[in-house]
């Protein structure tokens, strides 16, 4: 049986001595393992205990899920709040990339028209624009990943069974950033690449 984290999920299990319940004058906790919905057995458990001793006071009956929910409630709120801030930052960055790319392409309309008139494929133009955007993004991802690993120790107390340098979590964040940047640049690039060359050449 694995060690029990009796003093909180952030603390490792410690050595514990178990003594008979009748040797303790304080309150006693009875833990039952059941099959099916444990909350449906609360009444039967109360009746069984009262059948043994009617003087026993049963203060409350809770499931393990309810206990764990209360233990992690504060951490869950903190992580949800951090997640909302991160999502807001991701959406804001995506909107910013979209706006910058759209503005840059508006100034390069004539250049794109020349490329299309010289029989450049629209997919080639899209790839060129997206790659120009992704290059600084990739440099930023590399630097941000290194900073995240170094700064991960600051949030280590909020994590449970997950290292601050967890490769899966960092990989998911990097993938989300790259995908959002690709989509934010691909949309205006596709619009510019599908423009008729004659119209693009007449653009100011």
General description of the model:
The chain is mainly alpha-helical and 204 residues long. The chain is built from seven helices and no strands. Helix 3 runs parallel beside helix 6 and helix 5 runs antiparallel to helix 6.
Instruction: Name the assembly state.
Output: single chain
| Major sheet attributes | none
Radius of gyration: 30 Å
What's the helical proportion of residues? 55-70%
Number of domains: 2
Order of helices and strands: HHHHHHH
Number of strands: 0
Total of DSSP H or I helical runs spanning 4+ residues: 7
Shape: elongated
Distance between the first and last residues' Cα? 75 Å
Integer average pLDDT: 75
- Percent strand equals under 5%
Please name the defining characteristics of this protein.
elongated, mainly alpha, 2 domains, single chain
Describe the secondary structure blueprint for this structure.
Layout: H1 42-52, H2 64-71, H3 73-107, H4 109-117, H5 122-151, H6 167-193, H7 197-201
Offer a concise description of the structure:
This protein is an all-alpha fold.
């Amino acid at each position: 049986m694995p060690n029990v984290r009796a003093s909180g999920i952030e603390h490792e299990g410690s050595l514990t001595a178990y003594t008979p319940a009748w040797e303790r004058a304080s309150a006693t906790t009875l833990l039952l393992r059941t099959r099916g919905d444990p909350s449906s057995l609360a009444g039967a458990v109360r009746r069984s205990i009262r059948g043994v001793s009617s003087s026993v006071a049963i203060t409350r009956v809770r499931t393990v899920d309810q206990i764990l929910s209360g233990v992690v409630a504060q951490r869950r709120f903190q992580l949800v709040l951090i997640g909302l801030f991160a999502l807001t930052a991701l959406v804001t960055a995506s909107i910013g990339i979209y706006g910058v790319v759209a503005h840059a392409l508006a100034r390069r309309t004539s250049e794109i028209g020349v490329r299309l008139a010289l029989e450049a494929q629209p997919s080639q133009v899209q790839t060129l624009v997206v790659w120009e955007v992704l290059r600084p993004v990739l440099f930023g991802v590399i630097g941000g990943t290194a900073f995240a690993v170094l700064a991960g120790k600051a949030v280590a107390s909020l994590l449970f069974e997950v290292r601050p340098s967890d490769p899966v979590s960092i990989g998911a964040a990097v993938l989300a950033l790259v995908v959002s940047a690709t989509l934010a640049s691909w949309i205006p690039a596709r619009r510019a690449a599908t423009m008729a060359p004659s119209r693009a050449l007449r653009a100011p």
